[in-house]
Amino acid sequence: VQLQASGGGLVQAGGSLRLSCKATGVNFRIQTLAWYRQVPGQEREFVASITSDGHTNTADSVTGRFTLSRDNVRRTLTLQMDSLKPEDAAVYFCNTNFRGGMYWGKGTQVTVSS
Prior knowledge:
This protein has 114 residues and is mainly β. It has strands at 2-6, 9-12, 17-24, 33-38, 45-50, 56-58, 66-71, 76-81, 90-98, 101-104, 108-113. A hairpin with a 2-residue loop joins strand 9 (90-98) and strand 10. It is globular.
């Protein structure tokens, strides 16, 4: 299983970024996929998830600002992040659970300047 994340960068508060994660080595269509984020010295926290039938769940801190979607043809998970706040700055990781194992992509850094 490989999860390849991209799209991080530096943005001003109030701006937008789009993160993508391409998954290989799994039957993408049936996988629940998720994004987590982590600030140095803190625990990794849940951001958003999407099931195989497109049902999404987002953390309270990002609801209304972040939108998660999936493209089963391109095997890609996309996190659209709008109205970014300095507290959204973190390393973002895509994630899936496959055959009882948790798989993580390499993180992508999101920096939000105030």
